[in-house]
Here is the input.
Amino acid sequence: MVRTRIPPVAGGVAAVVAVALAVACWVVFPPSVDGTASPARPSVDLPLPWPAEGQASAEVLGLGSLGSRGEQEPVPIASVTKVMTAYVVLKDHPLAGGEAGPRIVVDEQAETEAAAPDESTVPLRAGQRISERDLLALMLVPSGNNVARLLARWDAGSQEAFVAKMNREAAALGMTSTTYTGASGVEDSTTSTATDQLRLAREVMKNDVIRAIVATPSLRVDGVPGTVVNTNTLLGRHGVIGLKTGSSTAAGGALMWAAQARGGALILGVVLHQNPGGSPGAGLRAALENSEKLIAGIQRELPAATR
Here is the structure.
């Protein structure tokens, strides 16, 4: 949130300003029957194909909220967690333009975890030296859990210390319904809401490095076998330029997404808890399919609403 400093004013003018601000706040956040603030109504009200289950939230930067659907209660978010991991790493170790950053030594733990049978991992060998940017790509594009934990140890000395940073950043962004307990999202105890994660999406899309990485369909990294393919299969369709998938049995499928509107505006959205309790693969398919319908609906309806 941008904070604007209002210079001191004389008593009579100050009173008028105070009343005007109070009226503005009442209009945007009208009081509910119990006197507390009610959630703001959508700034752009469109007939959209919201997911029938789970929760979702979307907005158009510069125009406002498109609204939310589903009960905004904390749920597991799986690998969407890695967006905050990237945000914290780049805040501590910023990269400029196409800079690769420092070369980080792969430790034995990251090599051992690469063989974990029930996780999304990237094959790494102890002693390899891989740049910060390439590790961020290996975390965000194929969703390497072992890479996320390696970056956390490199940044803070331990995953536990890094998680404390993640939660501090969440609090600073106003993500009041979010709790991080790991850097990768494999823990079901890492929970959040679509509206909270939308706050994070808004922030990370200001970062050129993250924007470039999450828009990459596939890549090759020296020392890592084969071509690394992005788990976000919506890239390039309906203007989609990112962001991050997530899936687990408890989380179902999840997707934080960004799309470019035909008029140039940036559309952001988060869909969580799609087909929870089923297989992670089925959940991810549901998240991608329901997100695609929602994005296509926004792209279809937005031009008429903004004329």
In short: The chain is about 35% helix and 15% strand. Residues 194 and 266 are 17 Å apart (CA to CA). Residues 1-40 have pLDDT under 50 and may be disordered. The first strand starts at residue 55 and ends at 60.
